[in-house]
Amino acid sequence: MKVILDNGHGVDTHGKRSPDGMFLEYAYTRKITKLVLTKLKRKGIEAVRLVPEENDILLRDRVKRANDICKSGGKGTILVSIHCNAMGDGEEWMPARGWSVYVAKTASEQSCRLATCLAKRAISKNVIVRYESSNQLYWKSNLYICKKTECPAVLVENFFMDNREDVDFMLSQEGMDCSTEIIVEGIMDYINTPDTGK
Ligand SMILES: [Zn+2]
Question: CA 66, CA 78: separation in Å to the nearest integer?
């Protein structure tokens, strides 16, 4: 099996930053992606970065890359796209906070199981987690990357970049460790739980 890690956006993506410009989504998601990659490799899990470049890669090119890896990676290959959330347009600080995970509206059972594994790990940390209901610990949305990728795929919205408390947390060592561990531990839970084949 292989884990495909997609870091959101590039240095040239418009917006995607905190209102004070101190927090940049592309930079943060690359940092977390690299930490997740290193930790997974240490656990003997093969992981690859979908976008090693610093610039933005078109979604359709990302999907093509992901599906090429899905084909060569064999059964059990999964994709985790790492992003940060925003409530507003980035002009001012907003009240919404917390971590959440998304799947496509057409998500497979495995995608939902992967999202649940991540959400359970997030809930086990001392952070705010946003989810649809206690029966569904993830959100369903029309996400191109999740919908078009041929292997199980989830998108993590790693706290809010237009909330001051969330930004302070994300930039702290505790926040970076937390963001990384939720993804690594969630992936390990997914791998270690037998697939019921539903
Ligand atoms: Zn994003």
Answer: 9
